[in-house]
Amino acid sequence: MTPAPNTALTAGDVELLREGDLLRHKPTGWVLRFLRYGGIGVVCERDNGREHTCLRGNLTFLGRPDQEGWIAHQGGENPAPGLCIDVRFRDGIVFDYGDPADGIRWEHLGDDGDITHWRPHAPSQAPAAPSPAPSLGVDLGELRRLAEVAVSVDPIGPGWYTYADLSRWMEPCDARLTEKTSPAVILSLISHIEKLEGRG
Asked: What is the mean pLDDT of residues 97-118?
């Protein structure tokens, strides 16, 4: 059993915490890892390794990560408002670019685009060596136009892309895209392709 997500910790909640549970410090927005209860406060660790003692009322429970740092998500509300996160979808695709949690579809529709796990984004510690960005050979302007049209034309349901034209771009982008891929996912993918090509 765990405390309720995104609510201030109560005395009873502190007893449910385990070492490694993720908490959010409301005044600063820091994501902290629970270490122990210290009598006068909750002792947590930041990602920089520094320990902090926080008042229980200033902390909210984010989740209990697995060994790889992922927190299971069963659908419903945004579990991490205001945070930059990585997500793993039902089909296994991982977006680890640190997108804001507020612009993501969290409710489950029973398709491959359902988010099953999330984690706070941790930027890589070592800067990547500069290298020329590869061109993926994708006409991003045309793909974006088609995705934006799909938002307004939804013959099989709100927000779903049904155009066969998408198949022209599926292989260079991701072979796992389907004709039922959400326009929001497509637009996010375009954004990431632009970053890879140095245009975003």
From this structure: 90
DSSP-assigned letter for residue 167 = H
pTM: 0.58
Dist CA 106 CA 5 (whole Å): 14
Domains identified in the chain, total number = 3
CATH number reported for the structural domain that contains residue 53 in this entry: 2.30.30
**Side chain identity at residue 198, one-letter code:** G
At which residue do the structure tokens 């994501």 appear? Answer: 31
**For range 154-182, the mean pLDDT:** 42
Give the start-end residues of each E strand in 47-107: 51-54, 59-63, 71-72, 84-89, 94-100
Q: Residue 165 sits in which domain range?
A: 140-196
Residue whose structure tokens are 């005395």: 11
Q: Residue range 162-169: average pLDDT?
A: 40
For residue 166, is pLDDT > 60?
no
Buried b (16+ CB within 10 A) or exposed e, 31-63: bbebbeeeeebbbbeeeeeeeeebebebbbbbb
DSSP H helices, the chain, are: 11-16, 140-152, 167-173, 183-196
